[in-house]
Write a structure and sequence with these properties.
InterPro entries: DUF7682, ParE-like
Oligomer: single chain
Radius of gyration: 24 Å
Shape: rod-shaped
Number of domains: 2
CATH architecture of the largest domain: 2-Layer Sandwich
Distance between the termini: 81 Å
CATH superfamily of the largest domain: RelE-like
Pfam families: DUF7682, ParE_like
Structural class: alpha+beta
Largest sheet: 4 strands, antiparallel
CATH topology of the largest domain: YaeB-like fold
Bound molecules: zinc ion
């Protein structure tokens, strides 16, 4: 059997039945797509929609939400009540994002994650 390089339809040269460079590329793409799908699927578990947020914000927001579920103390996360609505608690997620939670007395419910700009806009009188 000859071990001569041949040209594949894709333009690459190599040995064997398929182009290993393209097969490798394909595998990488599939892995990336799979990882992306897995990431997308994790949002179904969230009590609030975090899809539009950057990944680091999503991860931090989830940590806070989980922490609130177990410890139920927003002060652990430097949360503060809004001045104009004492039942809403704002918890810093990153420098630019806040998690808003509603206080139902015995428990807190996460409502949404908003950016610092949105947060300032929704604050009346500022
Ligand atoms: Zn190829």
């Amino acid at each position: 059997m000859s071990r001569r390089k041949k040209s594949f339809p894709c333009g690459h040269k190599g040995y064997g039945q398929i182009c290993h460079r393209c097969a490798q590329q394909q595998a990488t793409w599939e892995q990336k797509r799979k990882r992306k799908n897995e990431w997308q699927e994790t949002f179904a578990q969230d009590p609030i929609d975090l899809r539009a947020l950057p990944k680091n914000v999503v991860v931090k927001a989830r940590n806070i939400i989980m922490g609130l579920q177990t410890a139920n103390n927003y002060r652990d996360f430097h949360g503060k009540r809004l001045r104009h609505d004492r039942l809403v608690i704002s918890i810093p997620v990153t420098r630019n994002y806040r998690l808003l939670c509603r206080d139902y007395g015995s428990f807190l419910t996460p409502e949404e994650v908003i950016s610092h700009e949105e947060y300032n806009v929704c604050k009346p009188g500022s």
